[in-house]
Fold these 4 entries.
Entry 1:
Amino acid sequence: MAVRKLITGIMALGVAGALVWTGTKIQSNLYEDQCLDLGGGRNPGNFPICVVVQNDPYLLIGPIAITANDIVSIKPGALSSGNRIVHIELKKEIAAALSGFTRHSVGQPMAMKIDGKTVSSPVIREAIESTKYDIALSEETAKDLIAHLSPD
């Protein structure tokens, strides 16, 4: 009788474990985790290491998703070599995350995606420590970016 209870208990634990494992697999398919792991579990500026993204963000610089809520200002600038310069000023919090990523990724490519399409993939030469950025884009892409990320 005791052996039967022991076997039943072990089977119940196995079923519970299988259900937990299945639940985590289903949950992981619902969300795309983009983790900013800078090695050793460190994170830039005490900001969360992982950002859960349910939808594709309109602007993605490396693993950093940038939304209209992260923008102080965004405006068109002059034309340069047939491209429109877009002036972007980020809030300090998102700029710190981008700074942490670039500081630990010098020498690596950093993809910039707009609306899911890679528009640039420069190699990081040095950490980006500013809140203000200039990005050269085609006229149409620049207009779309400004329309999607304008904070007003």
Entry 2:
Amino acid sequence: MRKIIDIEALVHWTLGDQGVAHEFGEEAYGAGYAASAWEPIERLAQLGTLVDGRGGSRFGSGDIHRDALTIGDAIRSMEPDARGMVICYGITGGRPSWDYRPELRAVIGANGKPALIRERVKGLRGWRDDVVGCELELRPSIEVTREAWARYQAWWMGLAFLQALLRGRLADHEATGPRAPFEPWIGTDAEALVGVVFREHGVRGDTMADAPPRKTA
């Protein structure tokens, strides 16, 4: 009977426990991927030796499981960027970071004080500029947060594609999943905040832009 196992765990077993990652050259990670500054753990993918839990390297031992070799071949056939993410996170058993917690903060002007938003209003003595608030920005920015989410989803889709590639090809395992959620940020405060700001405030760059008649000081 074949062992049913989630694709994420199966990749980690293949690359880490079985040592198939030793067979991948740097080119397998995709152009520029190993130099990415997103995750320091990605550098682990370039180590010369991977050691399993029994204390010895499996590379060259001749006892790599036949399914692990099949999975390695399937990973090699993937598109470079997806292959790079599957390999790097598969070796470490980690996932791309997505749990960013953007916060609205006041924009600090050149004078070291919050940048105020003024609105031209008419009073009893004529027109005047009233302070109606201060300019706000998200930190981390919407762009950083959404890019991290896109990266996580690209990793997830890489696993899903690999799982499809392996259907009917393994002798002793059956890959399922991925069990990891596709959008783990749904329902979080970060998802709600990014969605509201993006839809309602016409975000430009990192800052919440307001209507043209208002001016900052």
Entry 3:
Amino acid sequence: MFPPQDAHADAGPRVVDLSADDGAAVDALSSETARAILDRLRESPTTAATLAEVTDTSPQNVHYHLDNLEAADVVTSVDAVDDETGCETAVYAPAGDPLVIVSGDADRDELERVLERALGAVAAFAVAGVVAQRVLAPAPEFVGGEHLGGYGVSVLPVGAAVFTVGVLAAVAYAVVHARQLER
């Protein structure tokens, strides 16, 4: 029904430069309510009525923030569904993922490229971590609460270790290249 959460993943990170003409996104996200709406939409696409309930604010206030977020290309309408009264209502989702806000003289294109590589590395290590966990550390076998063999109580989560090393490597890569951009 709704697009998958990673529908915009191939677009890479959207870099918003505070010193450029990207003020609409920053202005739209300056409100705590707007940030709460975006956080909720990152969980799953939903309607303004649901957003009003979960953010504990009025539907009018939610529509105000959605209009601002949509104008800034932070959220978008991805579908329409019938509400409980039979009227068609919009379903909203984040317009892209992730959103990075920078300030200063950073080279935008280079920063986007560095972030794309770092995010790609994290994804690759996540897959490698799952594979390593499955191959190197199979789960112990339990039936009805009784242990039937295997490793006993616990084993080192190999997949988590591989993923953690990958995340640290990606962060280090991003930090080193970001510092090079500052020079």
Entry 4:
Amino acid sequence: MVDAKKIEFEFKKYMDIYKADPELGHLMQQMTFQELFNEKFMKENSKFASMDDMLFKSDFGLTNPLEIEKVNQDKWNAFIAKNTECENWHQFGKLAMIEWMKTVIDLWAQLKEKRAKDAKNAKKAEKKAQKEKE
């Protein structure tokens, strides 16, 4: 099982980062269940290969994650505790959010670095072109 306190601490830490950066906050608003509960996450943190696999094997008759709210939550949480690294659905969702936020922050940092490098190279090319005109 994962450490509940560690999840809460990390979740708050990353949420604060997203709240402080409007661009990251915008990306979070566009996140989908498929991105959140992606195959890598599901394989690493549950007994399932995908969210669809989990829903199908749950025997709750679910066809998509939005239907989870309609089932008996005590039974669903027991299913989650038995088949994942988490105690309940809420914790599993937070763990997925943490992993998603980390990934997006890493990708965002790489993109910003590339943009800065491209801008620097563009300035160099512009200066070179001006010198060649002279």
